[in-house]
């Protein structure tokens, strides 16, 4: 079982798994928020879950950068900024599935999905750290 609030990991592979795990769940709950047909309470529950997983994703990304630094690899902050700039507190405060809220969630979902698609299991778990960093940089550059 992962410890989601811990930055330091046993090794780079573990850090990559935790990052991807958090990213996957954030993506999943954003999608559930967008597709919620069960009323505002369910919408709010999914939005709050996605915000918590996104916070975990930021911590996990920091862990990935930390483990990379041990290997002498410098990560840029582009991917982390995607999460930070979304203002997670605003996500947590969403109570209604108004058109403007749904538009904000959809925009965030699209950004997260681009990162997730670019950082699939094979990239994260089977390549050397400098190749992973390069893949993350390519994905984050494509977002701009």
Describe this structure in words.
Helix 5 packs antiparallel against helix 7. The mean pLDDT is 71. This protein has one domain. It is elongated. The protein is mainly α and 144 residues long. The termini are far apart.
Task: Describe the secondary-structure layout.
Elements: H1 12-35, H2 40-70, H3 78-84, H4 88-93, H5 99-118, H6 121-126, H7 129-143
Major sheet details = none
Cα gyration radius (Å): 15 Å
Quote the distance from N terminus to C terminus.
34 Å
Low-confidence sequence ranges: none
Summarize the structure.
The chain has helices at about 10-35, 40-70, 80-85, 90-95, 100-120, 120-125, 130-144.
List descriptors.
144 residues; mainly alpha; 76% helix; single chain
